[in-house]
Amino acid sequence: MSANLKTVWSICIAISVVTAASILTLYPYTSGINFAPDEGFNWYYWKRPDPDFLSRLSVWGAYVLHQIFIWGVIAWAASNREKLKNRNAMHPLNWIALGGTGFFVMLHYVQTAIFYDGLGQDLPVITSQASVILVLVIVLLMEAPRRGLFFGTGKGWFSSIRPMLIRYHGYYFAWAVTFTYWYHPMETSYGHIAGFLYTFFLFLQASFIFTRVHSNRIWTFVLEISVLIHGVIVALVAGQEFWTMFAFGFLFLLVVTQMHGLGIGRTAKWVVALVSIAATLWVYSIRGWEHLNEVLRIPAIDYIMVGLIGGALMLGLRIKQRRNLDKQGAK
After folding, report:
1. Are 183 and 120 in contact (CB under 8 A)?
2. What is the CA radius of gyration of the chain?
3. DSSP alpha helix (H) spans, 184-242
4. CA–CA separation, 29 and 308 (whole Å)
């Protein structure tokens, strides 16, 4: 990676941190809202009690514009690959993507200050959560040929669909991240601020498309495991006891799958695994062994979805290949 690219990347990360912290300045505009009582499962708490046409137009209109913009960037990049061969340099497209991201961040700030509305006004919270979960599942599928799924094994299971996932994953990721970004108003709680910082980093990942930043293993690993930190922070801020499910569920994924793509030695892997097991046993000795099944909930969902989605994609690819062979035979 070139020094210039590293400098731009570092500056963007610093700007993201400062921007996330600046959300706190919205407190005078958001502190007086009287939220409706929490109705439990699938209820999004942080939404204005008196939405109207203009408040909904502000968020849906901004979301649609942002979505079109980021899909347009990806589509142009995909159709102009030959112009983006130098992965050590910033291309004009990368600057456009960064500029557009900055614009939509400022737009969301202003939109929150004036209207305090998000897509969560009209959609259940499961839609936002599910979109992010599916991103993690696709990453597991996409990275499986390189690092495996279970302690470095299983590298050949989904290798046939990796080229397709590499080519088209950006469209889904861009939708999931943009949708989640506009789902929430820029609330000043620490959980929201952590979530927006994570989202800013994901927008940076999209903006550095066709550069070495986009494929940097350490950076992509940090993005992948940051959901652990975000999930724990949100649960703790909300006063939820099952923060342990996020902490140790995602830690399970780290030990079993994610750390095996970093090129670290066997000794380091054993240290990470043993420390993780010790921390899990210590926490659940206090929380209660009857809750230990929490550790397996997130991994079980993710691995089951990996099997189902990966299997469906492989089946579809084989059907397509068979049809192509039949067409060639018919000629």
Report:
1. yes
2. 21
3. 190-207, 217-237
4. 45
> Which of the residues in the chain have pLDDT under 70?
41, 238-239, 326, 329-331
- The pLDDT value given to residue 31: 84
pLDDT in tens, 262-286: 888 999 999 999 999 999 999 999 8
Distance CA 99, CA 92 (A): 11
Helix and strand counts by DSSP (H, E) for the chain: 11, 0
Nearest to 210 by CA among 309, 76, 13, 23: 76
**Predicted pLDDT at 238:** 67
Asked if residue 174 lies in contact with residue 74, where contact means CB atoms within 8 angstroms, the answer is yes
Answering whether pTM is above 0.85, one says: yes
Tokens of 315: 């089946």
CA 135, chain centre distance (Å): 6
Side-chain half-sphere CA neighbours of 321 within 13 A: 8
Closest C-alpha among 133, 131, 65, 168 to residue 303 = 133
Contacts of 232 (CB under 8 A, 6+ apart): 243, 246, 247
- Residues ≥6 apart with Cβ < 8 Å to 262: 217, 218, 221
Structure tokens at 256: 């079993």
**Cα gap 309→313, rounded to integer Å:** 6
Other beta carbons within 10 Å of 276: 17
H helices present in 238-293, as ranges: 243-256, 266-287
Query: Which structure tokens are listed for 83?
Result: 């112009």
Give Cα separations from 199 to 17, 105, 223 (angstroms).
Answer: 11, 10, 10
- Pair of tokens at residue 215: 């494929």
- The tens digit of pLDDT for each residue in 140-182 reads 999 999 999 999 898 888 989 999 999 889 999 999 999 999 9
Question: What is the distance between the alpha carbons of residues 180 and 130, in angstroms, rounded to a whole number?
Answer: 10
For residues 75 and 209, the answer to whether their CB atoms sit within 8 Å is no
Say if residues 162 and 324 touch (Cβ distance below 8 Å).
no
CA dist 230 and 84 (Å) reads 33
